[in-house]
Amino acid sequence: MLTSQRKQHLLSLLRRDGQIVAKALSQELGLSEDTIRRDLRELAAEGLVQRVHGGALPASPAAVNFTARQDLASEAKVAVGRAAARLVQPDQIVILDGGTTAVQVARHLPLDLKATVVTHSPTIAVELAQHPGVEVVLIGGRLFKHSVVAVGAAAIEAIGHVRADTYFMGVTGVHVQEGLSTGDLEEAHVKRALSRRAAETVVLASSEKLGVASPYVIASISEVSGLVVEQDVPEDVTTPYIELGLSIIRA
């Protein structure tokens, strides 16, 4: 089998099974593990897979810049954002992450809602600037332009002074075994800090983020309370999360 054919076969298996286990596949194909791992390294360099211990997972298509993400599964993000906005109760303090799905949460908060939104996203702050009943607390720090959010030590120090009811977390990858992940190390640290300052964390999980992984782990699945997903996500996709005790909110 030629290298190009072998790589296409790996991608086909990944689409079918949702993961590649290098040892098992090497035995199946009669190839060395080194050969499989080399192919996976090259596919990872092309952004087609995310390598994990022992093999690979699908790479998240959501790990692109903010502008590009605005056009990715936009209808799904509107639905997820609308459903998440309905979870916000009067007089709550909620943390709203950065990102295009979080923007939809902000846009769908009822105009008569009185609550406090804490965010490290200038984009979210601007979205809520004209909301009559929402007080906005903006966390500062170094601007990570890829996601248009504040990161760094100053942001994490400020986050330590917050105590919120719910954190609506944006991610680029949600996986039962590999947890929640994103494409930047500092951003992962900030998201972890935000999650620790909320009574519960709800993940905004449009379908392109389910079953995929990005390079930097935020937290394990067990550390969050629930997922907001699209209405038509198959039950066999959500069942493993339910078995781990998560609530599934369908948009």
Automatic annotation (TrEMBL):
SUPFAM superfamilies in alphabetical order: NagB/RpiA/CoA transferase-like (SSF100950), Winged helix' DNA-binding domain (SSF46785)
Q: What positions does the domain HTH deoR-type occupy?
A: 3-58
Could you list this entry's UniProt keywords, alphabetically sorted: DNA-binding, Repressor, Transcription, Transcription regulation
One Pfam family here:
DeoRC
Q: Which Gene3D superfamilies match?
A: 3.40.50.1360, Winged helix-like DNA-binding domain superfamily/Winged helix DNA-binding domain (1.10.10.10)
A GO MF annotation of the entry reads: DNA binding
Q: Which domain of life is it from?
A: Bacteria
Question: Where, by residue number, does the polypeptide cross the bilayer?
Answer: none
Enumerate the InterPro entries for this protein.
Carb_Metab_HTH_regulators (IPR050313), DeoR-like_C (IPR014036), DeoR_HTH (IPR001034), NagB/RpiA_transferase-like (IPR037171), Tscrpt_reg_HTH_DeoR_CS (IPR018356), WH-like_DNA-bd_sf (IPR036388), WH_DNA-bd_sf (IPR036390)
Report the PANTHER family cross-referenced here: GLYCEROL-3-PHOSPHATE REGULON REPRESSOR, HTH-TYPE TRANSCRIPTIONAL REGULATOR SRLR-RELATED
Q: What is this protein called?
A: Transcriptional regulator, DeoR family
The organism's lineage?
A: Bacteria, Thermotogati, Deinococcota, Deinococci, Deinococcales
